[in-house]
Amino acid sequence: MQIEETRKAPVYDRPAISLITEGLAPNNSSLFIGGLEGARDLGLLRENGISIVVNCAVNLDINFVRNPANPEDGDKCATGFSEVRYYKLGMIDGGGNPDTMMLGGYYILLGALRQTMPKRATYPFEDGGNVLVNCRSGRSRSVSLVALFLHKQQPHLFPTLDSAVAHIREKRELRPDEWFETPKPMLYEAARRASDLIDMIEAKDLAHRTENHA
């Protein structure tokens, strides 16, 4: 199997997590982007009021369960509640993702922010909270998804996908010589296609609701 050679941007020191935007409806939540080290640091998550983590990476798993319900189950994986509500979207950092995965990621993130938790012992979570979107480095997959989300949810601040990406590059401290892969072009294009699909879905939903109330 031939391994594709790609340009490698210099590795920069940057924050483990970066605040990208604030005031997201319906609970006035803040949104952060980070990589592996930020996502697995529970102390850092607590410090920033992050109670929701959306992991974009297919090749990165984080076990947030600190007190397994069945700690002596042999080869069985740990289960139980974690301190954060954890959502996993397994995207590849490059080509190979179906077009619908970026669209699915958008609605996963939207749903995580808007869920209303049942008041039962099996749901020991509060509604809302700040959210961290992560991948391995917080440079490509996370940037694509969050740019799409900002453009659709805060269009008054980010009227285009390009303006959202430019904002994230600044907040995440992504340097110009790494912009060629922050985000990867195929993920950027996937976000563009997802944006068009969201417009179609919302237009159809609006037409359906208008028809039902006519």
Please give a structural write-up.
- The chain has 214 residues and is of the alpha/beta class.
- The chain has a single domain (17-62, 77-212), classed as Protein tyrosine phosphatase superfamily (Protein-Tyrosine Phosphatase, Chain A, Alpha-Beta Complex).
- It has helices spanning 36-39, 42-47, 100-114, 141-153, 161-171, 185-212, and strands spanning 17-24, 29-34, 50-57, 85-91, 130-134.
- Strands 1-2-5-3-4 form a five-stranded mixed sheet.
- A hairpin with a 4-residue loop joins strand 1 (17-24) and strand 2.
- Helix 3 crosses helix 6, helix 4 (141-153) packs across helix 5 (161-171) and helix 4 (141-153) packs parallel to helix 6.
- The longest helix has 28 residues, at 185-212.
- It is globular, with a radius of gyration of 18 Å.
- Mean pLDDT is 91; it is low at 1-5.
- It comes from Roseibium suaedae.
- Residues 107-172 form the Tyrosine specific protein phosphatases domain.
Distinctive features:
214 residues, alpha/beta, Protein-Tyrosine Phosphatase, Chain A, five-stranded mixed sheet, 5 strands, disordered N terminus, Tyr_Pase_dom, Prot-tyrosine_phosphatase-like
Can you name the CATH architecture?
A: Alpha-Beta Complex
Rg value:
18 Å
The class by helix and strand makeup works out as alpha/beta
- The SSE string, one letter per element, is EEHHEEHEHHH
* Shape summary: globular
CATH-defined topology: Protein-Tyrosine Phosphatase, Chain A
Give the helix level as a range of percent.
25-40%
Approximately what portion of the residues adopt beta-strand conformation? 15-25%
Strand order of the largest sheet: 1-2-5-3-4
CATH superfamily placement: Protein tyrosine phosphatase superfamily
Mean pLDDT: 91
Whole-number count of domains: 1
Unreliable spans: 1-5
Largest sheet: 5 strands, mixed
| CATH domain class | Alpha Beta
Overall number of strands:
5
Distance between the termini: 60 Å
Number of helices: 6
InterPro entries: Prot-tyrosine_phosphatase-like, Tyr_Pase_dom
Protein name: Dual specificity phosphatase, catalytic domain
Domain Tyrosine specific protein phosphatases: 107-172
Organism: Roseibium suaedae
